[in-house]
Amino acid sequence: MTTVRAAARELLRSHGATTVFGNPGSTELPFLQDFPADFRYVLGLQEAVVVGTADGYAQATGTTPLVNLHTAPGLGNAMGALVTAAANHTPMVVTAGQQVRAMMTMEAMLTNADATLLPRPAVKWAYEPPRPQDVPAALARAFHIAGTAPRGPVFLSLPMDDFDVELDAAEERAARHAAARRVGDLTSAHTPAVEALARRLSAAANPVLVTGGSVDAEGAWDAAVALAERRGLPVWASPIEGRVGFPENHRLYRGVLPPAIGPLARTLAGHDLVLVAGAPVFRYYPYVPGPLLPEGAELVLLTSDPAEAARAPVGDALVAGLRPTLELLTELVEKRGDSPAPTPRQSAAEVPEADGEPMSASIALAAVASGAPADTVWVNESPSNIQAFRDHVRIDRPGSFLMTTGGGLGFGLAAAVGAQLGRPERPVVAVVGDGSAQYAITALWTAAAYRVPVTFVIPANREYAILKWFGRFENTPGVPGLDVPGLDLCALARGYGVPAHRATDPAHLAELVATATTSPDGPVLIEAPVTTVPPTL
User: Fold this and answer.
1) In 381-464, where does DSSP find H-type helix?
2) pLDDT higher than 60, residue 439
3) Rounded to the nearest 5 degrees, what angle is found at the Cα of 414, between the Cα atoms of 17 and 222?
4) Which residues are bridge partners to 527 per DSSP?
5) With bands split at pLDDT 50, 70 and 90, how would you rate the model's confidence at 349?
6) Pseudo-torsion of CA 326, 327, 331, 336, nearest 10°?
7) Cβ-count burial of 295 within 10 angstroms (0-12 exposed, 13-18 middle, 19+ buried)?
8) What does the alpha-carbon distance between residue 191 and residue 231 come to, in Å, rounded to a whole number?
9) Which run of H or of E encompasses 83?
10) Which pLDDT belongs to residue 534?
């Protein structure tokens, strides 16, 4: 007879979820016993790193991975990363072991007393199957919910004594049916609604397109380019997006909108129709009051997330799959553009001259950009340097940029490892601040243990520079805890088994990046001491 364990593994195979990200505890051992040869287990040394690695993997591959955590304490450790995954719209099925059913009522040690409450509201769905026989169906439902819009993490609590339970013939048939089911959600908006939007877009005197990360995540990059070219739309990137939804070297691209109410509206002044595709309206921080839109402007949001549509403070919204909706809109809208040929990728800039010791962050990032290959996947978690990064690194193809949209730290190192595991054919360069790196430093061990050839570049300024900028902006002097002296990133990396180098000047930094990304033999960390470049609004 088939056991729950065997049925669960067949279901995972049917969803292509044979890479398991985890940190095992005693309550997970029954699920992991006799681990199949066709599965891969990726060990993280702390649960937030486990979830962050799965986040990067899911975004890089477009799949829904399985994450295996240790009952309530492990899930608690992972909560910050789950908040990030939810903000990133990253699909993943998170499971955690639970005490045996016979001892759950007495809340014996390692019982997750409120298993479905603990991960909320960071997950779309949380569930504990009422019977062992329901585990396969619960897993199937979890994959369907995680992978349909709006995509995001889900959670299952699985009692440790469920996996040896044998299924009878009817239960085995039910498990096979659960494994075979597929749920699709790639739907276009209602045609009359798209026709009405096409008329508004055609009639607008000076419309503008704002693209968000979901354009990339939903495979709508080419559709967004086609619409912009057909109508001749200038294109801005929505602020604080985790992915890039339009080629940044295209002649219609204008830049990244500022993440504040007043400055954003001023940037869009002169436009009478703002079409937002695949982004919330908008991610604002900090608070700078002003009008939500320029005088005389209207806004329409295209999104697959009903919650984003509902909470937008201004404008109309259509909730549907982005790619089919944008493709239909392109067919219907009046042609105004000249359909230019795709813009060729800009050649890498020359290595800049040093501007002091240490280098400025801007010079350092220009050097990193000059040394990285054209097909690099970039991961960024250096908040104080993001503007300088975007000045020098122009994303020109889909699936090439990842950043957290959740506002917390700990994403960069772990996500880069997952992205490289998911896309081994492309180089991955992670630009992570020295402060940010400490939140997920054990990801270096995973990179070394599995020989994942990530290039970690650490612009080290020995402070929480972004917080110092906010302190000046918010007029909050005298805040403690904003300096982090004494960190030796190279020593930390070597301690985890990662070769490390400290760049001495821009040419040395560019050479180190070029060598690490073109002759990969496992991970490399490059520390680049830099001065602070304060962001602006």
Assistant:
1) 386-392, 412-422, 434-437, 443-449
2) yes
3) 70
4) 458, 502
5) low
6) 50
7) exposed
8) 19
9) helix 71-87
10) 62
